[in-house]
Amino acid sequence: MEIPVMRDEPVTPAGRLFLQPEMNQVIHALIGVKYPWDVEAVKSEIGNSLMVKHPRFSSLMVRDSCGREKWRRTRVNVDDHFVIRREPLNDTVSDEDAVNEYLADLAVSSPLPADKPLWEIHLLLAHNCAVLRIHHSLGDGISIVSLFMSCCRKIGDPTQTPAIGGGAPTRPRRRWSFKRLMMVLWYTLVYVLEFALRSLWLKDKPTAVSGGDGVELWPRKLATAKFTIDDMKTVKKAVADATINDVLFGVIACGLSRYLDMRSSKGLRDGLQITGVAMVNLRPQPGLQDVIKLMNSKSGTRWGNKIGILLLPVNYYRNAGSGSDPLKFVKRAKAMIDKKKLSLEALCSYKVGYLVMSLLGAKVASILNYRVVCNSTFTISNVVGPQEEISFAGHPITYIRANSSSLPHAITMHMLSYAGKAELQILVAKDIIPDPKVLAKCFEDSLMEMKAAAEQSIPKT
Prior knowledge:
Chloramphenicol Acetyltransferase; seven-stranded mixed sheet; single chain
């Protein structure tokens, strides 16, 4: 049967940004399972899934005569998208270290081939895991996670697809007062101005964890910091109106302070700002029905990357792990994030980026975003995964982790939660941060100290 002739579709502005050499990004999702892979069962599941039927996952990225990127539908041969590794990756280290080494190499030296749709699956049979590689131009992280969930089933009920997260609680509608309006306008003005200055010359003071222009090409190491959602919730309860994101940024601030103390804190003043870059999804987190709607071109809802950028500063404080109250880091993070929530920084960064892309082209937009990354210190993301245990192609999943291609930052961190666990993948430039496991331990110890302090501060009932 011949494929009907279809008109090429333009790549979204954010998708074009992720295709530029300076900001080229591939998402890596690591899926671990209990039992050895049944290769044919996995191929069959993928071949019959919504993922392969999705227009973006069955299209080539081509350029027209003007050099503008387009999606062109093609026939998908599922076998072409599988890389099967039967032998152990490295017999001299643990499974986790061997797989992290593999992912670190993929992050810097393995672009996706352009002669087929921009995704592939690496089955690491000796390690009972798979690496799902998807180019960021195909969609944002939350949409891609939702699409992958359509291939999975609940352990307790194999006929049901899993839900992502627990659903946002209903919040009372806030009344718009003059004071609140003025705060929104003020914080938006301040943060958008800072964002503009970051794209020009404003830069973090150099520290032992700073990257910069060209660092995206340096060799990488990868380590995993492991948390539990219950521990994070215990800390959250100890700080009024805090969220899991507040706790995460408190842990990042405390952990970075600990690590900098170990490396060298000479010349670093208390309160020194260390700025992170976060991608913010401007769409609500979709469920399976929303993914199907997004796939339908007649629905009026556009698939792609609809993401803004937030600059999220944390602060270094000397002797963070020496008896000082670790909950102060969460309180400071909450105060900062509350101001960010009041602003329209993420929406403005998306709109301005769209305008620059339309008027000046993807190259200029890519350079400006690249400079924002070069002038800050780390990348951070947090994606909510399924709360219950799930299976893929009949294989119970034990963990899901995520990271992406390297950036000019010396540290990029991606947290993804699954079945009560939250695992933070820490990708570093190894010539700048040679010991990412030590950094991961700093984060884990910070959460444990916060939990202990929280348990003491919460009244017993």
